[in-house]
Design goal:
2 copies of one chain form a homodimer. Helix content of chain A is about 30%, strand content about 15%. Chain A has helices at about 25-40, 85-90, 105-125, 130-135, 160-170, 200, 225-230, 245-255, 295-315, and strands spanning about 1-5, 45, 55-60, 80, 100, 150-155, 175-180, 190-195, 205-210, 235-240, 260-265, 285. Chain A folds into 2 domains: about 1-105 and about 295-315, 3-Layer(aba) Sandwich (Rossmann fold); about 105-285, NAD(P)-binding Rossmann-like Domain (Rossmann fold). In chain A, strand 10, helix 8 and strand 11 (about 260-265) form a beta-alpha-beta unit. Chain A is α/β, with parallel strands linked by helices. The interface between A and B is large, with 47 and 48 residues.
């Protein structure tokens, strides 16, 4: 968490950012401090762990703040999420609900996500897990698969990340369908919109990719009911948030063969505890929340631009909707 | 091998195809026979293993014919390769060199290849082998990689398959370079042409994909000299032909760390013998010649169209150049 403050609120020209950085990792905090200071030399940055005068802090830039971290600054103008999602901010039960939340959305984020989705959809499409097991047995086992135009792949969530991911899959030749709450047109992608079209979206979808925002409505959307509507032997990829998935439902549908394989990048508890069943499950690929990330290099430039714009105009393009939840 | 013959050469309307199918697999032969008979009911098909009157055979459709298989038919008009490459035909030392060779190039072949190349380039780009090893140790190890626009990927061979593969990589955002003997323009791909530009092509190429045709000139092109010109820790993907790779050079450059990882779909001996070192090598991914394939469903339609066209006009678009070797 980084908190930005003016030393003296009467001196608007001399805004000072007392950067209060909070992430689970100290080196990451240091890297963000350094970059933000270099980009906005008129502002001053401190880490959350340093001593700060709460009255002077105007902006809080956060990744997974702890409960009460934000409420302790009474004069905040906005909260900046170091990420495209804001669920990690909303999870703070003491968050003052009137505060604008600025998302961080950038080219690298969408690029990383389309790479991850393309890689893992292709892995399931071409049956890499089976092939890797055959290699371990020194077995020449030429699995036949249909070409991508005969494979239906579905993306849930057609926002910044999901939209680009779906477009990338269509570009690779997949029969691509997408589902979202409200209509959005994407080249080469057949869209299904609203709860009433969810079943039609799932029907025939052999590889299901979740990129929904995490809200009260979408929590647990990857459950036994959903899985039962996919064709037998479907694969799922969760690159959104851990709580989208009902873990025990995945394990039982893997057992039954209804779901053949799953790739999971996000979990209810992260890092995934070393004794968690997912690690050793032969049909689960675990990746350590690397699908897409903001590094401090690219992210700090986006955040600096958003802070300057918000300070000048009172709004930015990437403002989230706290009520909607994304 | 399938040989097509007229029962009576004076009856041009009544061309009969004595289909002499030859592949390493009996079921594959049967499947081709059935499909060709259905598509061209005026022709007759036999398998090579059946008794045939050599004089009447006009066309030979082959995959990896054995030495002398083609020469035994004195009245052949053309040889059809069940595949985009013709090296497996030219390998027959008794092949009558005057015979036109028709390649089989189709949408599925290029689609399968672009999928394979995209999958394996992304696997190396996102360091899947490292990630899979971390999962086996139940270790949350978030490897950082640059986004694709900061990753230089090179494709050797810009023919039907290589051209589409390079275009696909560029579409995924990779910094894509290509190398071929003679100039060919591909959207989003920086081309290097001729032997004099080979070193410049290799310089900085972190992931090298080989899709060259196999000729006397390209045999052994994946050797220690080539590997030394790539940046340290580069990855290679061979989806062309086994003899492109000098096997012992790969093993020594993997030992030295000059090459970090290799994905191989083709081998000097196929199936790869079960005691071959490649199977268990931790830095080698073996796939059983599945990058791209012609199945009898799609392939038979392409070949039927080519045979009809050649019979009518004496030529086809996909005629290979036996002297050039592809």
């Amino acid at each position: 968490m980084i908190a930005f403050s003016t030393q003296d609120s009467s001196l608007n020209k001399d805004i000072v950012l007392k950067a209060v950085i909070y992430t689970p990792s100290e080196p990451v905090v240091a890297s963000w401090l350094e970059r933000m200071r270099a980009l906005l030399p008129d502002w001053t940055f401190n880490a959350l762990t340093e001593e700060n005068d709460p009255e002077t802090v105007q902006y809080a830039v956060v990744w997974r703040p702890q409960t009460g971290d934000i409420a302790k600054f009474p004069n905040l103008k906005a909260v900046v999420s170091i990420g495209a999602g804001i669920d990690h901010v909303l999870a703070d039960e003491e968050l003052p609900r009137h505060l604008p939340i600025i998302r961080t959305v950038g080219a690298d984020l969408t690029q990383f996500m389309r790479e991850y989705v393309a890689l893992h959809v292709l892995r399931h499409h071409r049956n890499r897990p089976h092939q890797a097991a055959a290699q371990a047995r020194a077995e020449w086992d030429a699995v036949e698969v249909p070409p991508a135009p005969q494979r239906r792949v579905g993306v849930m969530g057609l926002g910044n990340l999901g939209g680009v991911a779906a477009q990338t899959l269509a570009g690779l030749g997949f029969q691509t369908v997408g589902w979202a709450r409200s209509p959005r047109e994407i080249d080469g992608v057949t869209g299904y919109f609203g709860a009433e079209n969810f079943d039609a979206f799932l029907e025939g979808t052999e590889i299901l990719v979740n990129l929904l925002p995490l809200t009260e409505e979408t929590k647990g959307v990857l459950n036994a009911d959903t899985f039962a509507k996919l064709p037998k032997g479907a694969c799922i990829i969760n690159a959104a948030r851990g709580p989208h998935l009902v873990e025990e439902d995945l394990l039982s549908t893997l057992d039954s063969g209804q779901i053949a394989q799953a790739t999971l990048d996000v979990f209810n508890v992260e890092p995934l505890p070393s004794d968690h069943l997912f690690w050793k499950h032969p049909a689960i690929t675990v990746t350590p929340h690397i699908a897409s990330r903001i590094d401090s290099g690219t992210g700090s430039r986006i955040i600096a631009a958003n802070l300057e714009a918000f300070e000048k105009t009172g709004t930015v393009k990437d403002l989230a909707d706290a009520v909607r939840g994304y």
